[in-house]
Amino acid sequence: MLTEKQEAFVRLLLEGNSQAQAYRGAYDAAGMSDETVYKEASKLARRSEIRKRLDTLRQELENAAIATVRERLILLTDIIRGDRTAADKLKAVDLMNKMTGSYNQKSEPDTDVTLVVELRD
Fold first, then answer.
1. Are 71 and 99 in contact (CB under 8 A)?
2. How far is CA 81 from CA 18, 54, 75, 93, 101, in A?
3. In this predicted structure, what is the pLDDT of residue 65?
4. Sign of torsion, CA 60 64 65 68?
5. What CATH number is given for 4-65 in this structure?
6. Residues 88-107: pLDDT tens digits?
7. Best CA proximity match to 10, nearest among 61, 65, 68
8. Neighbouring C-beta atoms of residue 95, cutoff 10 Å
9. How far apart are CA 31 and CA 58, in angstroms?
10. pLDDT digit string (tens) for 4-30?
């Protein structure tokens, strides 16, 4: 478990700050030289619990940015039911069928079919 300052450091890194900027934002570094801040920030960033937390939060952000299957199906359904062109609706149906595997279903005919061809002169 991270301290409040360590958590703040990680969050500042996630926001795109450099290690030194994140360190200054999370810790009282007013009396520290730039070199000391760089060293302490680097040392802190190398700690396993900091790296693990940073990786976890990055993964959560990445996952949140990706639309779920349900969200994509809802969007396609809105297109199908909405005020769109027939072409847009057909494309949405096609995409939905591909997503749900509707095109992959193989079916066998229920009855035997006999084809009779009559040749005439």
1. no
2. 47, 42, 10, 10, 21
3. 81
4. positive
5. 1.10.10
6. 999 999 998 888 888 776 66
7. 61
8. 16
9. 32
10. 999 999 999 999 999 999 999 999 999
Q: How far is CA 39 from the centre of its chain?
A: 34
Tell how far CA 113 is from the center of its chain.
49
- What residue ranges do the domains of the chain occupy? 4-65, 69-102
Task: Determine what percent of the chain is predicted with pLDDT higher than 70.
Answer: 89
Residue type for position 53: R
Among 11, 79, 30, 75, which Cα is nearest to 3's? 11
Angle in degrees, CA 27, 9, 56, rounded to 5? 160
E strands within the chain? none
pTM of this prediction exceeds 0.70: no
- Tally of helices (H runs) and strands (E runs) in the chain: 6, 0
Of 91, 55, 59, which Cα lies nearest the Cα of 76? 91
